[in-house]
Amino acid sequence: MRGEKVFSVGIFPCPPHPPLRGTFSHPRWEKEHIDTFGHFLLISQPPFVCRALLFDLDGTLVDTLDDLAASVNFVLGKLGKPARSREEIREFIGGGVRSLLRDALGSGYSGPIEDAVALFEPHYLEHCADRSTLYPGVLDTLDRLSRSHLLAVVTNKPEAPSRFLLEGLRIDGYFKALIGGDTLAVKKPDPAPLREAARRLKVASADAMMVGDSAGDIRAAHDAGARACGATYGYRPAGELTEAGADFLIDRPADLLRLV
To answer: Which of 31, 85, 100, 192 stands 20 to 30 A from 182 (CA)?
Structure first.
């Protein structure tokens, strides 16, 4: 191969290639060395050193759908609206409380969204850990990653229920920072929450990787100058993560251990 030093090599159908699943990819990989089987070898620059992992919460670390659905339907009932199905509410998760409620209420609701938020927040804070559970493998993965990496949570869920949930599931001790949807004036997909998390961890954004299940997580990571890993086991389809430009895809939390 003309004497180049090879740091990472992958073989994929040529072209194009998808985000890698459970193996390392790099956005500056050179597409070289077409082999006789119609594949190309990806010859990378030295892989980046991942010093910090920034995790989304809902759909990435914790399956919160049942508790969110219960609180959303509590609000809908109070406002005289029909209940939404679990699958409908799944589609609404990811943009924060106001986005969730606005989508659930639909275009026929003309009242102030703050009225719905005022009903939702105390109910959800009281019930946010009733049925929410860690995804399989999360606890072991966090335990192993925390020995070598700095970890933070960057979520659009407000800080109070996020902290309560992390504490209730006994994983709060793994994280050195928590950035909620109300920590700053903006939330994901704005890159500011990721940059703030990196600042608190005292690392450069370029040395961090965002792990999340939505296109907003992927866009926020790229705009912050970080790597982006899509969690296909969460609430959004893998195609959405690929289209958003995820550098990696993982099908289970433990796949992270092969990436960093």
So the answer is: 85
